[in-house]
Write a structure and sequence with these properties.
Blueprint (H helix, E strand, L loop, with lengths): L1 E6 L10 H9 L2 E5 L15 H12 L6 E6 L1 H12 L4 E7 L11 H19 L6 H7 L9 H13 L12 E6 L7 H10 L3 E6 L6 H4 L1 H10 L4
Parallel strand pairs: 1-2, 1-3, 3-4, 4-5, 5-6
Length: 230
């Protein structure tokens, strides 16, 4: 059975992945859904891209054979960095509406998505504290509350890491999915990533937004299976 390790993005719940995981299993794929530290719960420390790479390496090192690696959104950013540093560990890189293209100014939709997630995480953990004015400005809104300070710094560390990220250094076969209507990481990012990663294939999912694996799971999985040696 083919093994796939999955890295989610900023989220307050992994429940939304359930159908996608079940469908993968029915197609003869063994998915491992990682709980990326700090992206689903309160951070006990500030993370950097380097610390995420080290954390992931400890997990991948336990596998006897090469694995396929799926990264969605911020998880894609981590996956790209890992694939560049440890290409011998990964058989196939699969990116879904991935972060990793640096922008001097974040799109408003991305700011809102990040801070809504941070607010929901924080509300369940830290009562009713209010974000600093600087973070209100970054979000472009005045109602993003309760983000844990470690979460905020981790988020900034990861976004800033894109300044030095060179997706063109990815050498392993890469399958890129993008929702055509994505307003968080726009399709132009996906097309640029496809141009930069020479051994890549871009699949644009019609009528999908930032998470086609949730809205169009069968279509995404059919493409994944057709591109893997099961």
């Amino acid at each position: 059975m083919k093994k796939i390790i999955i890295l989610h993005g900023w989220t307050y719940s992994l429940e939304k992945w359930r159908i996608f995981l079940e469908l993968l299993k029915k197609r003869g794929i063994e998915p491992t859904m990682l709980n990326v530290p700090g992206l689903t719960s309160k951070n006990d420390k500030v993370w950097t891209i380097e610390s995420y790479i080290g954390w992931l390496k400890e997990i991948v090192d336990k596998e006897k054979d090469k694995v396929a690696l799926i990264g969605h959104s911020n998880g894609g950013r981590i996956a790209i960095n890992f694939a560049i540093k440890y290409p011998g560990k990964i058989e196939k890189l699969i990116l879904i509406d991935s972060a990793g293209i640096y922008h001097n100014e974040l799109p408003l939709a991305l700011k809102r998505a990040i801070f809504k997630t941070l607010a929901k995480l924080g509300k369940s953990l830290s009562g009713s504290s209010i974000l600093k004015n600087a973070f209100y400005k970054l979000a472009g809104e005045n109602d993003y509350k309760d983000a844990n300070p470690n979460m905020k710094q981790t988020m900034l560390n990861l976004i800033n890491s894109d300044k030095s990220l060179k997706p063109g250094n990815v050498q392993i076969p890469t399958l890129i999915f993008w929702g055509k209507e994505d307003k968080i990481t726009p399709l132009s990012d996906g097309k640029l990533m496809h141009r930069l990663i020479k051994n890549s294939k871009l699949e644009i999912i019609e009528n999908a937004h930032h998470a086609p694996q949730f809205t169009n799971p069968k279509e995404v999985i059919n493409i994944i299976v057709s591109n893997l040696t099961i």
